[in-house]
């Protein structure tokens, strides 16, 4: 970490809770390697405070952008001036940047980061069948990127019928005939089952789904990064299934962030 | 600087411009010495954006307090829930902290920092006559602390008659018979002449006052910290006057900040 002075520019990651967020530990060393006079700081914002917090943060002249995590990824789209295609299709965003003209543009790298991570681990989604549990911000982004990445079939599950139907309709509009939705997980036909819910963040959480429903040789992926070994992944391991950890996604998102925030270029003047 | 992670707590310094502000360079090494998982970051906020920015920053759960510098020291008092006595008398504040009950308390350490710095340099204000140029936020704080510190006479000068009269009236109510106000600097009777205007921050600025009006052996003090050698102090030196640099104040404010923000104790839980 370089010295913070009056000239240091800011990025912030918004979440609630925020203590577990790994982005500062990954992005700050990157900023340092690139020789940037900038830091990424965590900011805990409760859901009812999001509108006011973001309105205020947009007034900070040396704040160049935001990363956004649970539970704000869907709601944050309301406070952007424009949505990149991945954010528009997913209905959620995890990064916002200030454009030279002062507008705030939102994009979503959860999906592309996850798909890059799957590919790097040898699980290219092309032609495979997926069961995705959770149709919130992260789930929506993963769904869009998996379909974009060539997934043959995607069964989305969520206990909230409203948001499940809205997501399935949006996905089916763009990728017809490959998406189904249900209130309970449909694992039997899946090659890969993915947890995109927050279940597993806290020690007493129930499993988001029972991995024993998956076929032998199947892959269980979790988007949760801390703890690295969620109860879901431990249970799947014990069943002899292949597991895919949450940190793969963030590792591959780093390059997306660096590009989005122009970290390899000089900062825009304030 | 320690590593910034998701658990790091925040302090911010608000100013416009903010690039010249020294607080991050002084406070962050102090936080590190104290082993605190916290950083102070600069935030540039334009005057018309202050209300919205502060409203937003109050919604950041891990932001424990603000330092405030030019030009926000007066206006910021409107956004505090309570004013400490030094802030109330000066009509300006340079530090706000979140109390355990969620209220925001404002205090002002410009004055006490300046007076401690004068004393440490051998210029105890007790019994001396002062000419103070600038009745803005910093000037008001210095005026109150100089009178509190025993200054025999204080001649305040400002080109804005409204804010000059308001300050003189407030000071005279508390320290009767020792304060006068004027639109032009009255240096002839002064032992110490103080610049409390922003003139000198930028290379082409005119002098805030002509130090040749001061008696031989007089002291010229500047609150400007960067550049360290303002044109005012250079001119005063060339005239054989004693000079007192702006950084003395911040050096002595550090201990005030550490106390105000409880930097030697564990942080309050979010």
From TrEMBL, chains A, B:
Name of the protein: Shikimate dehydrogenase family protein
Signal peptide: none
Pathway involvement of the protein, from the record: Metabolic intermediate biosynthesis; chorismate biosynthesis; chorismate from D-erythrose 4-phosphate and phosphoenolpyruvate: step 4/7
Entry keyword annotation includes Metal-binding: no
Keywords for this protein: Amino-acid biosynthesis, Aromatic amino acid biosynthesis
Domain of life, per lineage: Bacteria
Organism taxonomic ancestry: Bacteria, Bacillati, Actinomycetota, Actinomycetes, Streptosporangiales
Segments forming domain Shikimate dehydrogenase substrate binding N-terminal: 13-95
């Amino acid at each position: 970490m370089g010295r913070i002075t009056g000239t240091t520019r800011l990025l912030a990651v918004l979440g609630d809770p925020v203590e577990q967020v790994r982005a500062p530990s990954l992005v700050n060393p990157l900023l340092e390697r690139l020789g940037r006079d900038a830091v990424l700081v965590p900011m805990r914002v409760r859901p009812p405070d999001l509108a006011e917090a973001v309105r205020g943060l947009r007034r900070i002249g040396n704040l160049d952008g935001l990363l956004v995590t649970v539970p704000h990824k869907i709601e944050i789209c309301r406070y952007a001036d424009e949505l990149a295609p991945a954010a528009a299709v997913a209905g959620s965003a995890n990064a916002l940047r200030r454009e030279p003209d002062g507008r705030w543009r939102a994009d979503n790298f959860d999906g592309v980061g996850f798909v890059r991570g799957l590919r790097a681990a040898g699980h290219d989604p092309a032609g495979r069948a997926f069961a995705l549990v959770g149709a919130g911000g992260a789930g929506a982004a993963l769904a869009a990127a998996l379909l974009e990445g060539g997934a043959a079939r995607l069964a989305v599950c969520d206990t909230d019928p409203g948001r499940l139907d809205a997501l399935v309709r949006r996905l089916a509009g763009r990728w017809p005939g490959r998406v189904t939705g249900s209130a309970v997980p449909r694992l039997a036909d899946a090659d890969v089952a993915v947890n995109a819910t927050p279940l597993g963040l806290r020690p007493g959480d129930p499993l988001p789904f029972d991995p024993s429903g998956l076929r032998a040789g199947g892959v269980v992926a979790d988007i949760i990064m801390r703890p690295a070994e969620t109860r879901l992944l431990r249970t799947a391991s014990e069943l002899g299934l292949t597991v895919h950890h949450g940190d793969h996604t963030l590792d591959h998102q780093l390059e997306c962030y660096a590009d989005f925030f122009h970290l390899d270029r000089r900062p825009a003047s304030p």
